[in-house]
Design goal:
The chain is α+β, with helices and mostly antiparallel strands and about 270 residues long. It has 12 helices and 9 strands. Helices cover about 40% and strands about 15% of the residues. It starts with a helix and ends with a helix.
């Protein structure tokens, strides 16, 4: 892999452009303080009243500004998994507020004043910055092959949420994003619980490390950039059994270096899936 996740994020920052701002239907002077406050809530559930007080405006006014930013493609609101998609008997209390993401790292990082890659993993927003970066690219890749898929998050009141759930017909893929070079079981515990409750078919814990392995059955940890490069192949595993892949992962061995290369799909797909 030519670049690490952090290097890619910082390279995007150096190409930051603000050409979209003049097209907004609100004053740029209003956008800047709004984005400053929203950037500090990257990857968090939106509380319109609290954010409105921070900006000195009413929450209906803030809702209008956020709608304008959403309509102009600057931020994304990710909504919780609807109750009608929960298995029977699991219609318990769940967050109703959407999670907010500023969609481009090129815009987010300058606002937060992040200049050095060494600052990212230690930042309290590190995982959320990584999540926003991955989220946009995953949704773009999914729309290319399955344009009717839907996107949600799940959980978050009493436990770590599943950051992204892709609902693809009758298949559900859960993802968590961690800006770390190594993971522990706690990092994918929410995926394990979601799999146990039949909320997802397969889970992926995406991180900055280079090893691909499986912590538990049907939960794979994969480098974030590798996952984007091989999105079609890896998400297709959610619909197939791959016992050899599980066995290799449980033995704690590295995957073959060429397993994740598009040119090797036919040979490795036959060896891994059948």
């Amino acid at each position: 892999m030519e670049s690490s996740v952090i290097e890619v994020l910082l390279r995007m920052k150096s190409k930051a452009t603000f050409t979209a701002w003049p097209r907004l239907e609100i004053d740029v002077d209003d956008v800047k303080p709004t984005l400053k406050v929203l950037s500090l809530n990257q990857g968090c559930r939106v509380n319109f009243s609290t954010l409105g007080r921070a900006l000195g405006i009413s929450h209906p006014t803030l809702r209008g500004r956020i709608k304008t930013l959403v309509d102009n493609g600057i931020i994304r609101l990710l909504h919780p998994l609807p109750k009608d998609l929960l298995p029977e008997g699991q219609h318990r209390a769940r967050p109703a507020a959407p999670v907010l993401f500023i969609r481009e790292a090129a815009l987010l990082l300058p606002i937060l004043g992040i200049e050095d890659g060494a600052d990212l993993p230690d930042s309290v927003l590190g995982d959320h910055i990584f999540a926003g970066f991955m989220l946009e690219r995953i949704i773009a890749a999914e729309r290319r092959i399955h344009p009717d898929s839907c996107y949600y998050y799940y959980g978050g009141y009493y436990s770590t949420p599943v950051d992204l759930m892709i609902v693809r017909f009758d298949v559900r893929i859960g993802l968590v994003f961690r800006l770390k070079y190594s993971l522990r079981g706690a990092d994918w515990r929410c995926l394990k619980a979601a799999r146990k409750n039949d909320l997802i078919s397969r889970g992926f814990a995406l991180y900055a490390g280079l090893r691909g392995y499986s912590g538990v059955r049907d939960i794979l940890t994969v480098n974030g950039l590798y996952f984007l490069e091989d999105y079609d192949f890896l998400t297709d595993l959610a619909q197939k059994r791959c016992p050899l892949l599980m066995r290799v992962a449980r033995n704690n061995r590295k995957y073959p270096a060429d397993m994740l290369r598009a040119s090797e799909y036919p040979r490795h797909a036959n060896r891994l899936l059948y």
